C-alpha cells in the first residue's frame, strides 16, 4: 500500500507545486513507483510534469463523474500524473450536496494506492473543501514554508485545521515534516525564520533546505522537472537529497547540505533551446554543456600568471626560471 502525502499550505507561492513535481521526479529516478495527484484548479503541477491540462478533466471526472481513477492516470517519464483542470475550480460548490463529501478523494486514491510506493497530492493555496479532501485522504501532511515572515503567520491556522481533521475526520493523519523553501543563507531573515520554525515544530523540520534557485523557476516553463532541466543545479541536488533521505525522515542528512549528483545522472544533462529540446552528454569537467569550469587554486594562479604576467605581454620583463618550470 502506497503512502499518501499531501503537500499543503494555505499561503500561495511557498513551493508546494515545485516540491510535488521535484520529489515525484527524484523518487521515480530512484526506481520508486510514484503518482502525483494534482488537486489544484490552477493545474500547475500537471503542466510542470509535461501533461497538457486541456486534454482531460482528470481528477474532476473521478470525483464528480464517477470515472475510474485508473482511466485518468497519465504516465510520463518523470512519474504518473492524475491531472487537474480548470473545471476543478467549481468542484467545491458542486460537492456541497454530496454525502460524505470530505472523503471523495480518499476513496479514489485508495483504489490506486496498492500500485504505488508514494502518492503526492498538490493542494490549492486555501483552506476549503478541496484542501480538506486532501487532508482526509492523506497518511501525512508535508508543509513547505517560505523563508519569509509572512509565511509564518498562517502556520497556526494550518495546524489548527490539521488538528481538527485528525480529531474528527482522519485520526491517522500525521505531520510528515516542515520543509524550508526559497532559503537564502546570506540573509539574517532566513536564519531567523528557520529558528522560529524549528522552535514551533521541534523535530519536524527537514535538515535539507531548498535554496532560492533560478533553475527551479525556469523548469516549469519547459514542462520538465528541475532534475531533468538542470540536474547539476543547487535546486535539483537539494530535492535529490530530500528524496534520498525519504520524505519520512525529517532530521536525516547534514543540515542544509545538497548531495552530489551520482555518476549515473552526471553522464547527461538536458539543454532546452528556444525552438526544440535536445539531449547531449556533458564531457568531463564541463557543467551544463558550456565548457570547462573555472579553474581554482593553483590552476587559477597558473592561468593568471600565463595570461597577465607572462613576458609575451611585457617584452621588457624576463620570465623567472622557477616560473618556467611551473608552466
Low-confidence stretches: 251-320, 322-327
Rg from Cα: 24 Å
Q: Main β-sheet: number of strands, strand sense, barrel status?
A: 6 strands, parallel
- Helix-residue proportion: 25-40%
Q: Strand content of the residues, in percent?
A: 5-15%
Total number of domains: 1
Word description of this protein:
With 327 residues, the protein is an alpha/beta fold. The protein has a single domain (3-264), classed as P-loop containing nucleotide triphosphate hydrolases (Rossmann fold, 3-Layer(aba) Sandwich), CATH 3.40.50. It is built from 15 helices and 8 strands. The chain has helices at 16-29, 44-48, 59-64, 91-94, 104-112, 129-137, 149-153, 155-168, 188-200, 214-218, 226-229, 234-244, 263-266, 298-308, 321-326; strands at residues 3-7, 34-38, 80-82, 118-122, 140-146, 174-181, 269-272, 277-280. A hairpin with a 4-residue loop joins strand 7 (269-272) and strand 8 (277-280). The protein is globular. The protein starts with a strand and ends with a helix.
Quick tags:
disordered C terminus, two-stranded antiparallel ribbon, 13% strand, alpha/beta, Rossmann fold, globular, 327 residues
Amino acid at each position: 500500500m502506497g503512502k499518501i502525502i499531501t503537500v499543503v499550505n494555505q499561503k500561495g507561492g511557498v513551493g508546494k507545486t515545485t516540491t510535488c513535481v521535484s520529489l515525484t521526479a527524484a523518487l521515480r529516478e530512484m526506481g520508486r513507483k510514484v503518482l502525483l495527484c494534482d488537486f489544484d484548479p490552477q493545474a500547475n503541477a500537471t503542466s510542470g510534469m509535461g501533461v497538457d491540462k486541456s486534454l482531460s478533466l482528470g481528477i474532476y471526472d473521478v470525483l464528480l463523474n464517477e470515472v475510474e481513477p485508473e482511466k485518468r492516470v497519465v504516465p510520463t517519464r518523470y512519474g504518473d500524473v492524475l491531472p487537474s483542470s480548470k473545471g476543478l475550480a467549481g468542484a467545491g460548490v458542486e460537492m456541497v450536496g454530496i454525502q460524505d463529501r470530505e472523503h471523495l478523494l480518499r476513496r479514489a486514491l485508495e483504489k490506486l494506492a496498492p500500485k504505488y510506493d508514494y502518492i503526492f497530492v498538490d493542494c490549492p493555496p486555501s483552506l476549503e473543501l478541496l484542501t480538506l479532501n486532501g487532508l482526509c485522504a492523506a497518511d501525512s501532511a508535508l508543509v513547505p514554508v517560505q523563508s519569509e515572515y509572512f509565511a509564518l503567520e498562517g502556520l497556526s491556522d494550518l495546524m489548527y485545521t490539521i488538528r481538527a481533521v485528525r480529531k474528527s475526520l482522519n485520526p491517522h493523519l500525521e505531520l510528515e515534516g516542515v520543509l524550508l523553501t526559497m532559503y537564502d543563507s546570506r540573509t539574517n531573515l532566513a536564519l531567523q525564520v528557520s529558528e522560529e520554525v524549528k522552535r514551533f515544530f521541534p523535530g519536524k523540520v527537514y535538515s535539507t533546505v531548498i535554496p532560492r534557485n533560478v533553475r527551479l523557476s525556469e523548469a516549469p516553463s519547459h514542462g520538465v522537472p528541475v532534475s531533468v532541466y538542470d540536474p547539476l543545479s543547487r535546486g535539483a541536488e537539494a530535492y535529490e537529497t530530500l528524496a534520498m533521505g525519504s520524505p519520512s525522515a525529517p532530521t536525516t542528512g547534514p543540515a542544509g547540505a545538497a548531495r552530489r549528483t551520482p555518476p549515473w545522472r552526471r553522464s547527461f544533462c538536458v539543454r532546452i533551446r528556444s525552438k526544440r529540446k535536445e539531449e547531449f552528454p556533458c564531457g568531463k569537467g564541463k557543467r551544463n554543456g558550456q565548457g570547462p569550469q573555472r579553474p581554482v587554486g593553483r590552476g587559477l594562479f597558473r592561468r593568471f600568471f600565463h595570461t597577465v604576467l607572462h613576458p609575451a605581454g611585457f617584452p621588457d620583463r624576463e620570465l623567472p626560471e622557477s616560473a618556467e618550470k611551473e608552466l
